[in-house]
Write a structure and sequence with these properties.
The complex is a heterodimer. Chain A is of the alpha+beta class. Helix content of chain A is about 15%, strand content about 25%. Chain A has one domain.
């Protein structure tokens, strides 16, 4: 962005961002305390472990539009970049996977985003799609409920993972506490999910370790480390804040009246027709 | 971000706030490949019409308006954010009954059909609601 334009936009936004902060639409972005409130202490369950029960929204820096930092263009909003390892913020892609990632940004690839077909977002994408989710903490489990009628189920009894031949959309998760950090280990993914809308790549070989560390009563530091030898040359880690919030989850029946899918298919078919010169199907 | 603040002082801080605000707001918008595929950011439109139907669906909801120009009435299909994001922005079924007059601000479909992606609606009493538009380049203000 040109410096002059940044300043103009900056003045416009600054003038209204204070006002918009008070509007209901901004309420999703604020924790219970609101701006400037003192942090509340970490909530505890009866066994002394942190109590994560509640509704959350991720301060995701636009992760659902890209894990790496990039400026806005007409196709996607700008992203803050949530990759903390490698330290340069760049995902250590295998060359084939980087090429696939770039190709997925084309409008005609929108049809290939599994969530466009109402398939589940998978792991870790479910944690930063821009909708609230609920964390429940019944004895022996952590359960996450997502608006698109999907869930993650994490037993805390140290069981072994499912056999390698079983492949799941949300993967197979097993968790345990390390001090105040909930550590969730996920394998057995089916490789059918995208990491976000721009198509950051993850294969079925991914092994994900997530860490949920409460910072205070209203904020949880979330980290996910992905080891995926098929798509990447090294493990990588993303990090963001999960903010406790007022919004409860609502039903999102994506599978009903999904008008988008036909449009995305039309865009894909048109691109294919142009490429092959064949008459429209 | 740091360089911006250090180099340009106050204006840099405001610009940094602008960037952060845009990013935070973008993070709550329901973006999709479908906006640029279907709609033209360079075809902004303003419509005034009467509600004929509302589909409270996800990932996008649709509101249909009869728009009369020079005696000719055309029914426009107007896409908004998903039903859940509308609820969170104050949209209510009872405010959008058949025949309700609305002013719609948004962007037209690339193919020129009477289809639009909605940025905001304004009622005759001046109340304005944002639609959680897929056009993530535009903030809600």
């Amino acid at each position: 962005m040109k410096k002059r334009n940044v300043v103009i936009v900056g003045f416009m936004i600054a003038a209204t961002s204070l006002v918009s902060f008070l509007m209901p639409v901004a309420a999703q972005q604020r924790g219970r305390g609101g701006a400037g409130a003192a942090p509340t202490p970490i909530r505890r369950a009866a066994d002394g472990k942190p109590d994560l029960t509640g509704f959350y929204g991720a301060d995701s820096g636009g992760a659902n539009y890209g894990l790496e930092k990039h400026p806005a263009d007409f196709l996607t909003p700008g992203t803050q970049g949530v990759v903390v390892d490698p330290p340069d913020g760049k995902l250590p892609y295998q060359p084939w996977a980087r090429a696939e990632r770039i190709n997925r940004e084309l409008p005609e690839r929108g049809y290939d985003d599994p969530t466009a077909h109402c398939f589940v977002a998978g792991v870790p994408r479910s944690m930063y799609t821009p909708s609230p989710y609920q964390i429940l903490q019944p004895p022996g489990y952590i359960v996450l409920l997502f608006e698109r009628m999907s869930w993650r189920h994490v037993p805390l009894d140290g069981r072994a993972h499912l056999p390698d031949t079983v492949r799941l959309w949300q993967g197979d998760s097993v968790g345990h506490w390390e001090g105040d950090t909930l550590v969730v280990d996920t394998t057995n993914l089916n490789g059918k999910t995208w990491l976000n809308e721009v198509g950051d790549v993850m294969s079925y070989d991914a092994h994900i370790v997530e860490r949920f560390t409460p910072k205070d009563g209203d904020n949880v530091t979330y980290q996910a480390t992905v080891t995926d030898k098929i798509a990447y040359t090294a493990p990588w880690t993303i990090q963001m804040n999960l903010r406790r919030q007022q919004d409860e989850i609502l039903e999102v029946a994506c599978h009903e009246d999904n008008g988008d899918l036909q449009h995305l298919k039309d865009v894909r078919d048109e691109a294919r027709t142009k490429k092959s010169g064949a008459p429209k199907p | 971000m740091k360089a911006l603040i250090n180099r340009t002082g106050l204006t840099g801080r405001i610009a940094a706030l602008a960037i952060v605000t845009i990013i935070l707001m973008a993070a709550t918008a329901l973006a999709h490949h479908s906006f640029t595929a279907e709609f033209d950011q360079n075809k902004p439109i303003k419509l005034s019409g009467k509600v004929t139907e509302m589909k409270w669906s996800n990932p996008h909801a649709w509101i249909y308006l009869d728009v009369t120009t020079n005696g000719k009435t055309v029914n426009w299909a107007c896409e908004t954010g998903g039903a859940n994001s509308l609820i969170r922005r104050g949209w209510r079924k009872e405010d959008l009954k058949f025949g309700t007059v609305l002013n719609v601000e948004g962007w037209q479909a690339r193919n020129g059909s009477p289809t639009a992606n909605v940025r905001s609606i304004t009622f005759t009493d001046g109340k304005r609601l944002f639609a959680g538009s897929s056009n993530t380049a535009v903030e809600e203000k």
